[in-house]
């Protein structure tokens, strides 16, 4: 394959390899999930819900922790099942959790609903309809609420497509990862492109027109040629959005990742080249770059939110959803409220026991201090806008850039490499250095290095 300009340019950045091999969080929250603790429980969440201002809009995230095959790259909370009975029992308990939660948020309208997993399309078509009916009977949905579902295109049946459309799904997120046979075998996800295209065509025909494509770089055996071919094929599907994630190899945390031969994983330099190539090819196709790793058509709500400075970040990535509270339902689901974060029991039996007892099944969480809120705001603006004004973000807390002399000192090596520009109180990550934004954000993370959390490499 001939060199792309970004490939040549990245070779000049080889001295940055050590910086980019640092392990830092993805910052879908701050503080990040490894720092949640058991001092936060269901009673805490019930109190926080009661304190929400009347009429505050909500988002809902619903977790289906089942798959029919195990993708070795997956970092999600999920279990492989070959019978429907565990899914059926889980759904009954999920209905109970929904019924327990509903009265606690009465008067709050839901503006966004997201089903994730695992694979929500593990549900039967009838159960997809039943789950949406149950949600609608206990929550007040806005008439224009977005309803997004993560979809596995492998084996997607027409009956499921019809059920999703009847349930009111407005956006589908489809995992593609990589289209090369060798890469797919190495991650145990065999997915011919023809199957993906068929799923996309049938979803659109059913009226589900807003489509996201998820890709991954840094996979075993993956090369620049693989990345280019995968993006070329994915562009032919004309999705509204792309997400291009770096594979996080954490076999000490997810034991099934030990099945991946780490000797054939791209090194830091190769990952950087793959990231840069993906950015070049997708933006050349008239997609707007969003934050670190998302792309959207200019007409898409994500691009509009980014342009207006309203882009937000949650546990599903970048979002245009601006509801101040996110309620998580299902085992391992994480919720975000103005007061802090809560996470349900990841273990299904423990989650079930709490639900059946009538409790909110919260296992852990963290209450935010004002300092946490300020640092969260700085990190979120960096992750979303590639810039942050320390004076502006600090003003509500009586702080300014002068309170961050230590952090500004930590940024000096990155500034010397051209990865961040410091202009008075304003920090800016140049667009060409967007791969470094997690590194920049990490300098404001006072939790980093405390505890045993191990994160993904920076690029």
N- to C-terminal distance:
22 Å
Strand order of the largest sheet: 9-10-8-7-6-5-4-1-13
Helix content: 25-40%
Number of strand elements: 19
Helical stretch tally: 17
Q: Any idea of the CATH class of the largest domain?
A: Alpha Beta
- Under CATH, the topology of the largest domain can be stated as pyruvate-formate lyase- activating enzyme
- Counted up, domains total 2
Shape: globular
Structural notes for this entry:
With 459 residues, this protein is of the alpha/beta class. It has two domains: 32-329, tm_1862 like domain (pyruvate-formate lyase- activating enzyme, Alpha-Beta Horseshoe), CATH 3.80.30.20; 370-459, Arc Repressor Mutant, subunit A (Orthogonal Bundle). The protein has 17 helices and 19 strands. It has helices spanning 5-11, 17-20, 42-51, 85-101, 125-138, 158-167, 181-186, 193-205, 224-235, 268-284, 301-307, 348-356, 370-385, 390-394, 405-410, 412-416, 437-442; strands spanning 58-64, 66-67, 79-80, 109-117, 140-151, 171-177, 210-217, 241-246, 288-290, 294-296, 312-314, 317-319, 325-329, 334-337, 340-344, 362-367, 387-389, 421-423, 426-428. α4 (85-101) crosses α12 and α9 packs parallel to α10 (268-284). It starts with a helix and ends in a 17-residue tail after the last helix.
